[in-house]
Write a structure and sequence with these properties.
- Helix content is about 25%, strand content about 20%.
- By secondary structure, the chain is an alpha+beta fold.
- It has a domain of about 80 residues: Beta Complex (Beta-clip-like).
- It has a three-stranded antiparallel β-sheet with strand order 3-9-8, with helices on one face.
- Strand 8 and strand 9 form a beta hairpin.
- It holds the Pfam family SET.
- It is found in: Nucleus.
- It comes from Dromas ardeola.
- InterPro entries: COMPASS_Set1_N-SET (IPR024657), Post-SET_dom (IPR003616), Set1-like (IPR044570), SET_dom (IPR001214), SET_dom_sf (IPR046341), SET_SETD1A/B (IPR037841).
């Protein structure tokens, strides 16, 4: 029982005529190279040729002038606006490559996976914004729960960032009396944020550190940074 398959007819425009009336019902089939090249040439010509009423010829010198004007406006915009805000936006789009692993200073530490130049934003200290009263309550609760280290960072007199249970890699940065970074409070959209800046050039696999600047207290916390000018205590 052999049935003769009907010959595939072609329409006036060169495309194959479908026997069933629907291309999807006939499954996969090959297209001749001639038909494929004809279709590709027509689509390219249509894409490359703009409408007649929109064809505008620009002189190369005008294009170069526009680019130089854009660079001049960008440089003036950068100089007039807050550089911290621009750097913070750049940090959001292109984050630094960092990793946390065991540190010789204390427990875990944060290390650079790429070279970082001086005076660059390294990472934002992320956590929950709480008031001083809540911070005191949480500190006692953390001690009762056996959490030895609390990751609280003071923003101002009323606001504290708590990254103990809700934070990012920035909470793993260790203290050093001779740090390669420093912390700075910036304002973004009327909200204060803590950002870690590079104090000097940081090499790959170098640990990121900053000075905690704890207030002076009677009960001292030993410092294990091991730098030449180590103060011996964090507070």
């Amino acid at each position: 029982t052999s049935f003769s398959t009907p010959k595939k007819k072609k329409r006036d425009d060169g495309m194959r005529e479908h026997v069933t009336g629907c291309a999807r019902s006939e499954g996969y089939y090959k297209i001749d190279k001639k038909d494929k090249l004809k279709y590709l040439n027509n689509s390219r010509a249509f894409a490359e040729e703009p409408p007649a009423d929109t064809q505008v010829r620009t002189h190369p010198s005008l294009t170069a002038g526009r680019r130089s004007e854009q660079r001049r406006l960008l440089s003036s915009f950068t100089g007039s606006c807050d550089s911290d805000l621009l750097k913070f936006n750049q940090l959001k789009f292109r984050k630094k490559k960092l990793k946390f692993c065991k540190s010789h200073i204390h427990d875990w530490g944060l290390f650079a996976m790429e070279p970082i130049a001086a005076d660059e934003m390294v990472i934002e200290y992320v956590g929950q914004n709480i008031r001083q009263v809540i911070a005191d309550m949480r500190e006692k609760r953390y001690e009762d729960e056996g959490i030895g280290s609390s990751y609280m960072f003071r923003v101002d007199h009323d606001t504290i960032i708590d990254a103990t249970k809700c934070g990012n890699f920035a909470r793993f940065i260790n203290h050093s009396c001779n740090p390669n970074c420093y912390a700075k409070v910036i304002t973004v959209e009327s909200q204060k944020k803590i950002v870690i800046y590079s104090k000097q050039h940081i090499n790959v696999n170098e640990e990121i550190t900053y000075d905690y600047k704890f207030p002076i207290e009677d009960v001292k916390i030993p410092c294990l940074c091991g730098s030449e000018n180590c103060r011996g205590t964090l507070n």
